[in-house]
Amino acid sequence: MDSQTNDPLLETVEGSTTGHGGSVELERVLSDTETPLMRRFTAASIIEVNLLYKLAAPAVMVYLLNIAMSMSTRIFSGQLGNMELAAASLGNQGIQLFAYGLLLGMGSAVETLCGQAFGASKFDMLGVYLQRSAIVLLVTSIPISMIYVFSKPILLLLGQSPSMASDAALFVYGLIPQVFAYAINFPIQKFLQAQSIVAPSAYISVGTLVVHLILSWVTVYKLGLGLLGASLTLSLSWWIIVVGQFVYILRSDRCKETWTGFNTKAFGGLWDFVKLSSGSAVLVLIAGLLENPQLSLDALSVCTSVNALVFMVSVGFNAAASVRVGNELGAGNPKAAAFSVLTVTTVSFLIALVEATIVLSVRDVISYAFTGGETVANAVSDLCPLLAITIVLNGIQPVLSGVAVGCGWQAYVAYVNVGCYYIVGIPLGFLLGFHFNFGVKGIWSGMIGGTGMQTLILLWSTFRTDWNKEVEKTNKRLNKWEANKETLFKE
């Protein structure tokens, strides 16, 4: 016992599990070849799990709270009637998720660059990256908002009834301000995550959810504004989150070095930012398509709702993975980057196994949380094995996508995702669903086949990576962006 207590390797671990101290200590522990392998592994695991927990736990909470706002809006709309519930669901699933996925994906470009710059201690560049990302996303929001404006004819073109299209369009009109809130919120969120500042966003989201519920009750029921009131309240709530986070950046001592105010340097290198953002957008959009088969069946709706909820846990680990890998690459720690990948993938996979086990254990009753009827319950129970497989795959694939963001591989992973979805997932789903008459189970099995292939390719690509070369690429990328900054400054 005394020898373990006096072990200098384990003694240093306890005080080095945050910030750059944890990163430096992790690399030192992994490089200490004189220490026995198991002791090194134990010490490194303690450091990495602590770093990961402090990032992933608040991030998971933020994403769950954000989805809770949208779900509560649909609940309030549903209390107005079945038509209103259907319209709100159509507006959310058919149009809002497109904007959310596109802008969230483009926002991950700032996650790559901020994470690597923070690891390299180039703190002033984080604020520049934040502003560049916000500019690109705000410009992108203009054509997206036009889709919202013309949502009624678009929905009619897609075969919706005139009454449904009118109600859904009314709901969507109130979401137009939300698009521009997304454009600012996602870069701010990634800017903070890159510095391991996650808890404040969670606190702000908790407070905003409370305000959102109160305001929704007032606007929908007391003021009688109906669907438009519900969606306008949702837009306002997202702007509250944006303002709250930006006020934190301005007032927090933790952001003094990374936010130095607005400047014209943010307008430099925008085209490179657009290219990196575009790769990110395709990555997230295709991942979103893989997760939602868009079939109007009660049983599938229950399963996809459960899947969407537990998927937020994986999204939290996605954010944590990108931050950890980006920080370590920026700091020039190849061993720590590789160990971070191994740790976050393993932890997320084990959590997914637990989630899948729970789903299978309650497969016969899980539908009653959403709707009644033994027929639906039996159908859901029949689909739950596919749901469990999807949950397990989602415990790996989003994390590897987060690793890709941390490394700046968005374009490559986008090609992988597009190929697996269009070349494997869709054709296999149609073949099983229609040719072999397996119906919903066949289509979902095809999606699983595409996701499975995608996961295997990402695993192969990630674990054959030369992390020393990734450090060199990161240095070149940061030097390039630094040169852009200096050129503009001289001008």
UniProtKB/TrEMBL annotation:
Keywords on record: Coiled coil, Membrane, Transmembrane, Transmembrane helix
List residues traversing the bilayer.
55-77, 97-118, 130-150, 170-188, 200-221, 227-250, 270-290, 305-325, 337-360, 380-400, 412-436, 442-463
According to its UniProt entry, one GO biological process term is: xenobiotic detoxification by transmembrane export across the plasma membrane
Q: Does the keyword Lipid biosynthesis apply?
A: no
Membrane-protein topology: Multi-pass membrane protein
This protein's GO cellular component annotations are: membrane
Q: What segment(s) does the record annotate as region Disordered?
A: 1-22
A Pfam family reported for this protein in Swiss-Prot or TrEMBL: MatE
**Which compartment or compartments is the protein found in?**
Membrane
Subcellular location, principal: membrane
Does the record carry Membrane as a key word? yes
The GO molecular function terms of this record are: antiporter activity; xenobiotic transmembrane transporter activity
Coiled-coil annotated residue ranges, if any:
464-491
Family recorded in the similarity comment: Belongs to the multi antimicrobial extrusion (MATE) (TC 2.A.66.1) family.
Q: What is this protein called?
A: Protein DETOXIFICATION
From which source organism is this entry?
Ambrosia artemisiifolia
